[in-house]
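Quick question, first post here. What does this chain look like in 3D?
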Amino acid sequence: MNTITIRQLADKLKLEILAGEQGLDRVIDNEDIHRPGLELTGYFKFFPNERIQLLGRQEITYLHSLTKEERDERIGNVIKKHPPCMIITQNQEGLSYLIKHCNEEKVTLLRAKEKTTRVISTLNNYLEKEFAKSIGIHAVCMNVFGVGLLIRGDSGIGKSESALSLIEKGHRLISDDLVILKRIDPETLIGTHNQTNRDFLSLRGIGMINVPRLYGSGAFQDETLINLDIVLSAWDEKKYYDGIEHTNEIVEYLDVVVPNIEIPIRPGRDIAALIEVAAKNWRLEQQGYTAINEFQERIQNL
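> Answer (accepted):
Ran it through. Tokens below.
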């Protein structure tokens, strides 16, 4: 099961650390978030202390309305349950009592600038991706015309060289050699890097290059939805390649179906251009248009 630390959460979401720095290396292993409402009134029967606790303006305003003794007791009882961390939204202030209890119990207290609904949405998206079921595959991942592509093939077939050509045409690299696929929901895959190979492209005869440094920050992005799976293969003279219509093939990753096409390679073929066409064609098909259908209609109308 995937886990993250409070430190990683704070760094990724740019949260201010107010107290409980001793708990920054504590592990989060639950993607759900809880807003302690009933708990602040003293009801703890179903309190999910394994979840991140989020206090918005409503909860903080309620705490401010209590006497000092009541406030210390109510919030103290929550923090003594040792949740992974506490997050305050909207840059709210007057939190000395929270800071005191969090430091005493070594529970990290974080603060966000954004309003509560935005923080919840950002947290949910981040945690959902971090805890998503994932696998690593040998491929190159690119975003071409807004279409997320996996480019696969045997070692030395030209995956990275094709990626370089696409980058020079203005498209974006996600990951080279090792692509991490994450299943976000039953129909959605995201492709990303593993942090170590972030920014890098490996080219035989050249070595490792840093794509953003050579081509600018616009040549790279952290992740993309996976829309199409492309396999580069050596041209087989004994195999018939239909130049008019291709069969609709699919491949599955983590039980998510992805359309698959094969592009045979031989001297003279512009692979990067063919990949661009494949991406554009996929977009047209999503809009309900296929060239072969129009072509067949024209033949029938002759």
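Residues 4-130 form a domain with the Udp-n-acetylmuramoylalanyl-d-glutamate--2,6- Diaminopimelate Ligase; Chain: A, domain 1 fold (CATH 3.40.1390.20).
The mean pLDDT is 93.
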